[in-house]
Amino acid sequence: MKKKFAFLFVGLFFLSACSAGPSGGSAGAAGDNSNAGNQQEGDTIKVGLNLELSGAVAGYGAQEEEGAELAVEKINEDGGILGKDVELVTKDNKSDNNEAATTAANLTTNDNIVAMIGPATSGAVKAAIPNVTKAQVPMVTPSGTDDSITVSNDQVQEYIFRSCFQDSFQGVILAKYATDNLEAEKTAILGDNSSDYATGLTKAFTDEYDGDIVAQENFTKGDKDFQAALTKLKETDFDVLYVPGYYEEAGLIIKQAREMGIEQPIIGADGFGDEKMIELAGEENVSNVFYTGHFSALAPANDTVEPFIDDFKGKYDKEPSTFNALSYDAMLMIKAAIENEDSADSTDIAKGLAELQDFVGVTGNISVDQDHNPEKPLVVVGFTDGEESSAETIEP
Amino acid sequence: MELMIQQLVNGLFLGSIYALMALGYTMVYGIINLINFAHGEIYMIGSFIGYFLIQSFNTWQVLPNAWGFFAALAISMVVSAFLGVVIEFLAYRPLRKSTRISSLITAIGVSYLLQNVMIYFFSPDSRPYPQSIARKTYSLGVIDISNIQLLILVVSVTLMILLQVIIKKTKMGKAMRAVSVDNDAAQLMGINVNRTISFTFALGSALAAAGGMLIGLYYNSIDPMMGVAPGLKSFVAAVLGGIGIIPGAALGGFVIGLIETMATVFGFSDYKDALVYLVLIIILLVRPAGILGKNIKEKV
Predict the structure, then answer these.
(1) What dihedral do alpha carbons B14, B43, B146, B75 form, nearest 10°?
(2) Chain B residues close to A235, C-beta within 8 Å
(3) GO biological process: any one (chain B) (predicted)?
(4) Which of A219, A231, A259 is opposite residue B6, by nearest beta carbon?
(5) What is the b/e burial string over A76-106, where b = at least 16 CB atoms within 10 angstroms of the residue's CB?
(6) Longest dimension (CA), chain A
(7) Chain A closest CA to B139's CA: distance in Å?
(8) What are the structural domains, with CATH classification, of chain A?
């Protein structure tokens, strides 16, 4: 019996070694080949969507799918790109980082896409980087804001781009906003220390902030009880509560803080940007809450915003959200890159994206900088009783 | 000082939920020496049943507000009790005579199965719980307490007392105690062992469901993975109090709640989960029978 198992294991080991072999070899070969990456073939330009359509952050993925679909519909109505129709290949990465990597490999090798949109979260994007880099297909994430996505170890990731700004930028702007607009001299931080996103935000904020950080407490993803931390914070004298984290915990923090009588402004980054945040907190509790957004209908960045909102309402019968707008822009950035390069081969698209300047998107006028990050204005939206009540545009 | 009292109160409410769940672990362990890892999932399913009931009460305009919550609580407890019995019948009973490790692995399997079934049907998103009881905060001198916190404490303490009465005063309770001492001897005395074990699962599951609903109301957020962390922590609570001992589980629950809260008070919020498991390790090293457990000397 034991012997049988031993054979089985040895067999499995060899099998897995075999399957790893050829793909490694082809990657090496692709590097020397002048026709590297995926070529555009036939009458359609295939763009992949690698999104969180189910799982913990399905909210983001579903919205980004809508935005990209609307963009493609518009592009095809207007005659496509270089006379060719755009075809979306949508795949669900189930909000799982490993799955995101597999999906990326699947889209680039099996579906022969020339560019990819997604994933929505930083962790999933990072997991997908090796596979898209190997396939030499550019990836534009609409909402992966972690700094190390585009630049890691001082090395710019050649095939990775984004239509959103990076975390450090949000943290810096929030620090400025707290000082200039909310006149906060003392800030308390209640941050998620289990995600790259939130720790990046915390670091950027603390580096930039001029006032005092009087208290800092941490929580981890999935926590539901913040009573102890909030009770402790309530006793400290602070002007603003900064909550770097996602909407699930932020909603509960806002609810528990307001019910406990903490009336100070609560600020956060784009991770707050989901309807669920308001539902979880309860409408009556979401007042004096501010977060940085990429897009607000109250503060349109340029003339493209109004038609975008109309088109979106026409197709989906609701107001477009930040994530809708960002993936809409991601698709249009790819279109602009193809047109500038006059080629829809994946390596050319990557080149076009890297050189993209003064692109007019619904989330602002974007110029891609040398680190592959878009330079564009940022909006801080404010809430009263669960309704968006203010939006201020802040230039970088 | 005021701050400290408020924090102790916070810990107490958190602890009462752990205590409710720990009772289920401890009863099942006491009676068939099985750590029922699917217990956290019953807690989750209990809260989902309550969620759908309250929502349908609201749409049909029957039993508004607090009455709706209590009606949903009662129904959810009954349904979850039934579910607990079904799980026992399908997953644990066929394995009762096999090794303990195989039952344990089955329990873990059932736990994953329930999580994934719920994710499949109801999406993994967390959803806001209907706030059928409006929150009011009372200021009692130095501390603030809300009506929901009071409700949690009252419901859990009532259920714990009720449980103690069932076990000490009823015939079924007597049978449970007998089976926990010696399964075979109990059978020889004419006790229907299968029925007694089913009853134990029913009781434990009903308590877990109550915990799940109270937590839903308290935090306004439920999701299919909500049972994992509290499940593990109340297991620690059961071991801490002395697994198999009912008052021990209640005590352990409160202690875990207080440890977590105090960890945050003293600036170890990063390590509060680690601290709970550290306590588990220490108790297993120093006093493996738990706080209220008796050290039974084995005769050689």
Answers:
(1) -150
(2) 3
(3) L-alanine transport
(4) A231
(5) eeeebbeebebbbbbbbbbbbbebbbbbbbb
(6) 74
(7) 11
(8) 22-165+302-376 (3.40.50.2300), 167-293 (3.40.50.2300)
pLDDT in tens, B100-145: 889 889 999 999 999 999 998 988 888 899 888 888 888 887 788 8
Q: Which two tokens stand for residue B97?
A: 């005579």
Whole-angstrom Cα distance, residue A135 to residue A351?
Answer: 15
Could you give the CA distance from residue B270 to residue B259 in angstroms, rounded to a whole number? 13
CA distances from A198 to A51, A168, A175, B166, B170 (A): 21, 10, 14, 49, 54
* Amino acid of residue A2: K
Average pLDDT over residues A339-347: 93
The CA-atom distances, in angstroms, between A134 and each of A20, A254, B93, B135 are 14, 43, 52, 55
Tally of CB atoms within 10 A around A134: 20
Q: Residue B3: which of A54, A235, A256 has the nearest Cβ?
A: A235
Report which residue type is found at A154: D
pTM of the complete model: 0.78
What pLDDT, in 10s, does the model give residues A57-83? 888 899 999 999 999 999 999 999 999
Residue B71 to chain A, least CA–CA distance (Å): 23
**Chain B interface mutation, best of A231, A255, A283, A286, highest count of B Cβ atoms under 10 Å:** A231
Distance between CA atoms of residues B43 and B29, nearest Å: 17
Interface of A with B (CB under 8 A): 54-56, 58-59, 95, 193, 217-220, 222, 224-225, 227-229, 231-232, 235, 248, 251-252, 255-256, 259-261, 276, 279-280, 282
pLDDT band at B32 (very low <50, low <70, confident <90, very high): confident
Residue in chain A lying closest to B273 (CA): A220
